[in-house]
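Hi everyone, sorry if this is the wrong subforum. Our group has a chain we'd like a structural model of before ordering constructs, and none of us has done structure prediction before. Sequence below.
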Amino acid sequence: MTERTRVPHAHPAEGRRAPEETADEGGLLEEPTPSRWSQIPLRLRVALLVSVLGAALMITGPALGLVGDQPPAGFAALPLLIALALLAPLSALVAVLSGRLLLASGVLIGFALLAPGRALTDLQFARDALLSSRPELMVPTSLAPLTASTGLWLLIAGHVAAAVAGALVAGTAGAEPGSAYAEQLDDTAGPRELIARRYLVGAAIAGAAVVTVGLFRPVFRSRNAFLLARELMDNPTLVRLGGLVTIGAVALGLVFATSSARAATTKGVLLGLLAGLAGVFLPGMVAGQTVDRLEPATEPYYALSAVVVLLVVVFLVLGTHTSVGIPQRLLELRWLHRLAGAFGVLTGIAAIIGGLGTQLVVGASLDQPASYANRPVVAAGVLVALLGAALFAGRVAATVRPAFTVALVSVVVAGAGALDAALTGAGELGEALPGANVRPAVNVGYGVWVTGAAMIIAVVAAACAGLAGTTERDEVDLTERGPNRVLIIPSAAAVLLAVGAFALPAVRAPDFVAPGIWADFRLTSWGLLLGLLAVVAAAALAPVSRPPRAVALLLGAAGVVGVRLLEFPLTGDRAAASTPGPGTWLALGCFVMLGIAAVVALVSQLKSE
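Answer:
Right subforum, don't worry. Here is the predicted structure as tokens:
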């Protein structure tokens, strides 16, 4: 009986289940790959292949040489050219493999927008290669005419392929209704993103203006008669036309991207534009740093930085969708913290690069002068970068923000001193050298310009942090909060010490006069005055603030005073027989007093709990 029960039910069941299990196994092992690729529109697949082909052509052309008997390049640029050619196709391919099809299309479109202008610029090699100042490709040594070769036409074909790839994915890319691509097309912006886009379009217009200046100006400065550094309108017709087409494409691309209702399209087009602009600017920027008789120009750095900053803002603002149950104001506060943190990290990185970078560029026959005033900029950069990174931690961001806002002033304090020293040094050395009226033998280096950029970004970061603070205070009831009387005494003492710390010289030495607030008022003095005002404001607000915010304000002020305190140990060697000035000792006292006040505020917080 048992056997009868088992036999008729067991075998037929196995017979019925076998096809189901086989189908399941086949579905798990065989279906995902074809189904994944079947969801990709045919035009997108073709565009990926065309873009890869275009990258191969853009690599092969320069490798073969664009003209016959081509002179050698100014530096080994082929690895850089390979990376720049592959940047957009590989980014699009990675986006496709991760299922972000609309993002991949945006990358190809953004890269394609710059292809016509780049092709026109490269066609100058066919008309007169000697007028193409392209040190990454060749550095002529004579006026012998150069004839275009096969490599040039391969390069032009690569630009055409990039443009075709972008055109293939324009619109819906031929996506079928109900496909994964069509679903991503339907994922439009929510209310929060629509509000943010009004500001993003304005930021895009500002970014386009900065890029336009970068494209109008030379990408490097030159003392080589065969590599002329011209303004855009002083270039040959093809180069001029290519530059104007590129400017129009950048403006169109930035506005189109930020006004799109789809976040993936916005991010993708900006990534593609950044990849294309990197191909336009980076070879010349590297040449300015490495090729003899060439010097870097600053405008390309600002142009690329403008697009990078806009891209970071877009990823932060459009990177988080509204979740059910999360208040809208809380989401606004989160992305404002992240936005401020991103600008803070950028400020810190720029300050570190600027502080470590070249401050003065002298002629080949001159000794490089030592620089000291830039060293505190590095310390300020490290401080701001760490605090900016802390703003990405949601739980502590609101607590850290006051310290971050005050600490940003340290970049301006140290940066003003560095700029003052570099500009003054360049002027004094240039006047002292014979022949300086013919051409300046001393120029400011890239470190000065990057430090200036760090100071500008710090202002933007402070504005974002201020908006976050305003948004947070709208949700807090402060009507019943009175001043912390215990905190008034150490805060007032810190204010008195801060006046001497910033107004009196931090370094004393024979025949050395340090700039100050009361005497020898210069650019450095403005930084010192701003640092003093920041410390005074933080110490004055601390007693009337909530204890956690009071602690943060006082610690941020201590960071600003700490940068001032480091001035003597970091810069004292600039004057012989130097000793710490009264500003150093008063800065030490102010630093300690701010620490004591922070401890008092922390104890008040613990008692209230």
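For your construct planning: The CA atoms of residues 30 and 557 lie 62 Å apart. The chain is about 70% helix and 5% strand.
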